[in-house]
Every structure is written in structure tokens, then in C-alpha cells.
Amino acid sequence: MSFDSVTEQIAHFIGTFDLTIEKARLRDQYEEFTAMRRKAELDELENPAKIRIKSDLELDPGKYDPLPYRFDTPPATPELPPLSDGPEFETVVALAPPVSSGPPLPEATAAIAATFVIEQKLEIVTELIGSAVTYTFQKIFLRDNDVVGEGEFRDVDQLIAQTEAAAQVAASMHAFAVPSFSISDYLSVEYVESLAEEMLAPINAEVEGAVVYQFHGEDAMGVIVNGEHVDEAPVWDDLLPQHHQPDEEDEDETPDAMPAEWDQEDDDEFADGHTVIAGGNLAINEVSATVAWVDAPYIAVGGKSIELTMVSQVAVVSDIDKGTNGGSGTNVVHSSTIKVEGKSAPWLKQGSSDDDAPAFVHVDWITTDLIVANFVKQSIDATDIDHIDTEINATTTLYALGDNELIDVTNILQLGSYYDLIMIEGDMISVDAFIQTHVLMDDDVVTGGLPGLIDGSDENLVMNEVSLLTEGEDTHQAMQASMADAMALGEDDMTALEDALMSDPMFAGMEQMRVLKIDGSLIQVNVTEQSTILADQDDVHLHGPHADETEVLAGSNAMLNAANITKAGVDSVVMAQDGVFSDLLLHQASLIDMPTNEEITEMTNEAIAALMEDAGMPGYENGIGPSGNDLTPNEMANSSDGLQTMLA
Fold first, then answer.
1. DSSP state letters, 394-435
2. 8 A C-beta contact, residue 308 and residue 199
3. Tell me: the pLDDT tens digits for 353-375?
4. How much helix, strand and coil, in percent to the nearest 5, is found in the chain?
5. Pairing mode of beta strands 211-216, 580-593
6. CA–CA separation, 366 vs 416, rounded Å?
7. 3-class state of residue 59 by DSSP
8. In the prediction, which pLDDT does 420 show?
């Protein structure tokens, strides 16, 4: 039955009200049920606010006992520590009676006088000097033999073998063998005297075509370049090939909107044109040392005083290029700078007429030998034999097959102490030896490409450089009897030694004396051996429409052996009982095989032809050698340099 409209609205309202009440009742029941469930879950925990983790952490009592520690029981009657010694002086403090307008003070306080006396023996605290020895060994080994394309190339193993043979020839051209790297040898006077004998009779290997210069004694002083005395030594940076020269571009003060690495406009690698870099290697061995360990204005030696300086510089270069490139050429430089500069001890009174003896003498006593030695050996053994046979037909071409950088650097700084007198019971030995070797094999075979570089020369640079600067000049005189008597005193006779030195008129005018007494010998050694071997024998064969306009960099190698030693000291008077010996030897030898060196070429032509005929090399049949560059590309690729063939 249907309701009227009013009854239907009332029934609808009653139903809606009943549903709302039921919904609220169900919500209350759900929340109560949820709360009781959570309470039941939490009741299982002893304490809901804490979480306990049970773990067995018991340590082994036999291994992890607590460390023993206890407090010392203080003494019943503690004593003050002993007073430290202070300077010896006496001070008197007198306090006058105070001025007052009131009644006079008692007589006991009318005047107060006190005297404090503290005694101490004056003592200089210094750090005893000890020996300083360094060993430095640096070696670089590189094999960068690239092959691009397929062609008739020379055998790499054969080229390396020829380079090794050239290195053996270079070793034989030195004036003396490499001195020992063992300190014990220099403690023997016999070994040092054997070095002196080698200097008096240096080795002169008979190598055809070698140019040798030798200087002894005072003749070796100063600046000598390739056997000639000059005013100034050449500078490495000024002689570098154009390829290694820094860019002389003006820096733009306006900041760039883009990062520098994004700007590829001025980068050679992104420039227009065609370039093949098969050379351009940089190899450097460099040593720089400053030695200022011990020195004094007066040096007394109970044995011999021996000073030896040995310099041997050798370069072997083969640079005979074949093909259309025109050749690179090599600049070989041997530079030696040996100088002695006077430097008086600044703490001594110059021209003083004061004859008073030193007030006190402090002696540092060394009961063994004092050794200051630096041994450095640097070697670079690299091959950059690149073989490329390709067609140049792109818009822009770059083949970077060389351009390696190999650098060994050693810096040594040794700073010690200066004394007024050094007394050496044994011998005083000083040895400075420099052995420098360069071997460059740059016999290139190039077909195609430009006859020379567009921006400068493709010339190689090979440089040996030695600089030995001694600050402080030694003069020699006989030992006086008073000094000889003082030398005989031992450490047990310290008082007698101090009295003898203070009464010696040689040291009159000094306020104080610092003395170094060495019971053994004073050994000062600097030995540097540097060797650089580079094989850069490239085969470059270019074809295609742009081959003739391709810039080929087959040379531009830069090689340097540099040793710069500064021996800092002061002018010294050396008194040696068993005599003084000093010698200086400079040896510069070069073997350069280049087309411009007609002398070597004429001397070796017959031997080269005979050896190549025996080896069956192309172009040398019937003992007739090729003239000019009339070889076929196949013959040029398989032919060898005359010097290398003779060495092999």
C-alpha cells in the first residue's frame, strides 16, 4: 500500500535517523575491539617501552684480563725537585727605607739588603750531526710501436736490436766506468786512488767517426759546450724544437662564456688540415741537489784529503731519413758548467785585531765515519717505431702516433751545520761523478707528405747538461805542530783538548768555538748516472688526393739528461797530514750519423756496403750502393741505416 506524500517523508526520515544511530554504535564497537586487540598483543611484553636483546658477550678470561693499574703511594715526606742550573751571575738587591711623613719606622726596618747567587756552567745544546745517505733509482720503459694499415714495413725487432747495439757502443765511449754505488768502497783509500788513476789514464775507445773532447784540471773549469769554452751555458727551453715550444698567445682578459674544454676552435687537434705525428717525443732525466751538510773555515785531516770530479757525456745519434720528407736533422749539445765561488764565513770577524783566545769551546764528537752521499740512477728505454700506410682523403686528418712524454725528476735538499773547526782523524774524501748517455735512432722512411714542417723545423734535440757549483774555496797548508798535538787527544782528554784549542793562536779573536771531532773519515759522494735510449724509426707511406699536403712530424724529439748540484759551504783552510790530491776530468764524446756529416759517411760507406751486401739488403747488390733516394717504396721500407747495419 502506498503512503501519501507526508507519511512517506516521515518514514524516510525515521529510516535515515535509524541508520545514522546504528553507524555510530558500530564505530564505537570497532574502536573498542581494536584497542582490546592491541592491548592483548602488548601484554605479552614485560615492558612495552623497552626492547631487550639477549646476547652472550662473555670474554675469554685467559686472553682479555683487565690491564693492571695502581696509584703509587706518595712518600711521607715529599722533597722538592732539584733546582735547574741557570746562568752564572750574582745579583744584589738593596731596598732603601720608604719615605714617609709619619712617625719613624723601627730600627730593624730602616734598611734591607739581599744577595741571590745562582750558579750554572754555561753549556750549548746542539743536535749532533749524523750521516745522510740517499739512493734513488728511476726507470721508464716504453714500447709504443703503432701500426696503421697494411704495407711493407721494416722489422721492429731488428730495429730494436740495432738500437741495443748502439747503446753498447755508447757505453764503450765513456772515459771511465760507472763508480761504485757501495759506500764501503769509498771508505777505502785504495778504491778512491784507483778512481784517480782512471782519471789520469781515461778510456779512449777507438770508434770511427766519434768526436771526443777531454779536459783535465783547471782546463775543465768554466762553461764548456761541445768542446769549446763559452761565456754562458745554453738554455734547454731556448733550444727546444718548435713542436715543444709553448704557445705564445696573448691571454684574453675577457672571461669566456663557455668552459675552456668546450672551445675547440684554437685546438691543434681540431684545426683544419692534415697531420701525421710519428715523432715529437719528450724524454727528460733531471737531478737537482743542494748539499750543505758540514763545513768549517778550518779543517784538520789526520790522513789524506782527496777530491775528485768526473764528468763523462756521450751521445750516439743516427738520423738518416729517406723518402720525400726531406729529413729532420739532430742538434747534439754537451754542456758542462763547473765553478767554484769564494764565500767567507759570515760569523768570523774580518780584519779583527783582537788577540783574545775563545772564551769557551764546544765539541761535537762522532766516534765513527761521517758519510754524506747521494746515489742517483735514472734510465729511459723507449721505442716509438710507428708504421703507417694509409690514404688521406678526408676533409681533416690527424694521426697522433708519437708525442710521448717521459720524465724522471729527483730533488734533494740536505741542510746540516756549520762549525768553526772540523777535526778528522781519518781521511777526507770527496767524489762527484756524472755519467750521461744518449742514444737516438731516428732513421725514418717517408713517402708522401710535405717536405718539411709548415710551422718551424722538425729537428731533434739531444742535450747532456752538468752543472756543479761549489760555494766556498779550499786552500791548503801544512798542519802546525799545535794542531797535530790536539788531533791526538781523545774524548777522555776533553779538558786538554779545549785548552789546546783556546791557546792556539790560529783561533785568536773568536768569542766561542764550535768544533766537530770525527774519529773516522769524512766521506762526501755524489754519483749520478743518467741514460736515455729512444728508437723512433718510423715508416710513413701516404696516398690519396691530400697526401702531398699532409704535414708529417717524424722528428722533433727532445731528450735531456740534466744534473745540477750545488755544494754550499764556506772558504776553508785544509790541513792534511798525509797530503792533498785533487783532479777534474771532463769527457765529451759524440757519434753522429747524418747526411750532413760527410766525414762519417765517407769513412763508413765501404763498410756499410760490404755489410749490406753480405746481408742481401735490397739496393746493395754487387757491392754498389744506391744513390740519393732512387729506392722503391719496398726497398726503402726494408733498408737500414748505415750506422745501425754496421752495429748489428
1. SSSEEEE----EEEEEEEEEEEEEE-SEEEESS-EEEEEEEE
2. yes
3. 456 778 788 889 998 999 999 99
4. 25, 35, 40
5. antiparallel
6. 15
7. coil
8. 92
| Cα distance between residue 604 and residue 612, in whole Å | 12
Reported as a single tens digit per residue, the pLDDT across 565-622 is 999 999 999 999 999 999 999 999 999 987 754 444 444 334 334 434 444 443 334 4
> In the predicted model, what is the mean pLDDT of residues 84-98?
45
8 A C-beta contact, residue 380 and residue 534:
yes
Are 572 and 298 in contact by the 8 Å Cβ rule? The answer is: yes
Percent of the chain with pLDDT over 70: 71
* Element at 158 (helix H, strand E): helix 156-172
Q: Other C-beta atoms within 10 Å of 317: how many?
A: 24
> What single letter denotes the amino acid at residue 96?
A
Q: What per-residue confidence (pLDDT) applies to 22?
A: 83
When mean pLDDT is compared across 116-120, 276-280, 507-511, the lowest value belongs to 116-120
Q: Please, which residues have CB within 8 angstroms of residue 85's CB and are 6 or more apart in sequence?
A: 119, 120, 121
Q: Which residue has the higher pLDDT, 67 or 478?
A: 478
Q: DSSP letter string over 220-273?
A: G-EEEETTEEESS---HHHHS-GGGSPP-PPPPSSPPSS-GGG--SS-GGGSSS
Give 447: exposed, middle or buried? Use CB within 10 Å, 0-12, 13-18, 19+. buried
DSSP string, 510-537: -SEEEEEEESS-EEEEEEEEEEEEEE--
What's the pLDDT band for 549 if we cut at 50, 70, 90? Answer: confident
Q: Retrieve residue 354's grid coordinates.
A: 783582537
H or E stretch covering 345: none
The SS3 call for residue 148 is strand
This model's pTM is above 0.85: no
Q: What is the pLDDT of residue 573?
A: 94
Cα separations in angstroms, 634 against 148, 480, 639: 17, 80, 9
Q: What angle do CA 153, 154, 160 make, to 5 degrees?
A: 140
| CB-based contacts of 245-254 (< 8 A; 24+ apart in sequence) | 245/456
Rounded to the nearest integer, the mean pLDDT of the chain is 79
Q: Hey, how many other C-beta atoms are within 10 angstroms of the C-beta on 105?
A: 11
Rounded-to-integer distance, Cα 289 and Cα 134, Å: 11
Number of helical (H) and strand (E) elements in the chain, helices listed first: 10, 30
Cα 591 to its chain centre, rounded Å, is: 29
CA atoms within 13 A on the CB side of 177: 7
C-alpha cell at 401: 702516433
Cell digits of residue 531: 741514460
- Vertex 626, ends 622 and 632: CA angle to 5°? 110
Q: CB under 8 Å to 86, separation ≥6 — which residues? A: 118, 120
